[in-house]
């Protein structure tokens, strides 16, 4: 099932698991289905988070390394937060939150030009990213969690010093 979200070009995919006595099988990526044309995998990453309340974000890459990405949980669950930073988008500065979890079998597609962050809702949460651009330290940036646009995110227990030093966006 595919659900359009309230940011232009952003959508959620909810998969059905094929279960039997052995366990289950879940296909999470299939180019023949609804994925954007011209999406070529350039990087796959996993974020392991030991503790509940770990916050990562709000990250994005600047041109020419803007990236489209799919985000899903391999273990645990997250509160996923996306902010549209595309000035000519009809959803510019709109923010959405979505719970992504192994139990829900859902994946979120985040289009380039959007900032992304998440808060772990369980300990030992693993988040997988599939991206169409490689990481570039020179083009990597983000929005400080204290920015007005972010609003209030509750229950943050851990955040990196790097994320604390990101620029305030107002």
Key features?
single chain, 170 residues, Jelly Rolls, 1 helix
Write a brief caption for the model:
The protein has 1 helix and 14 strands.
What is the chain-wise order of helices and strands? Answer: EEEEEEEEEEEEEEH
Number of helices: 1
DSSP E strands, number:
14
Helix fraction, binned, reads under 10%
CATH class: Mainly Beta
Beta-strand percentage? 35-45%
Secondary-structure map with pairings?
Layout lengths: L1 E3 L6 E4 L3 E3 L2 E3 L17 E7 L4 E8 L7 E7 L1 E8 L10 E7 L4 E5 L3 E7 L4 E7 L8 E3 L15 E2 L1 H4 L6
Parallel strand pairs: 6-14
Antiparallel strand pairs: 1-2, 2-10, 3-4, 5-12, 6-11, 6-13, 7-10, 7-12, 8-9, 8-11
Would you give an account of this structure?
The protein has 170 residues and is mostly beta strands. The chain has one domain (2-17, 37-164): Jelly Rolls (Sandwich). It is built from 1 helix and 14 strands. It has one helix at residues 161-164, and strands at 2-4, 11-14, 18-20, 23-25, 43-49, 54-61, 69-75, 77-84, 95-101, 106-110, 114-120, 125-131, 140-142, 158-159. Strands 1-2-10-7-12-5 form a 6-stranded antiparallel β-sheet, with no helix packed on it. A hairpin with a 6-residue loop joins strand 1 (2-4) and strand 2 (11-14). The longest helix has 4 residues, at 161-164. It starts with a strand and ends in a 6-residue tail after the last helix.
